[in-house]
Amino acid sequence: MEDLLYPAAALLDSRHGLCHGSGMRRRRKSSAPSLLGDILPETLRKKSIHLPMQDRRLIDAWNRAVGPQIAAKAQPDRLREDVLYVRVSSSVWMHELQFMKQDIIEKLNGTLGDAAVSQIRFFIGDVEDRPVKPPAKVVPPDAAALKADERKYIEGTLAGVADPELKAILRETMIRSILRGRQST
Question: Are residues 120 and 170 in the same domain?
Answer without folding.
Answer: no
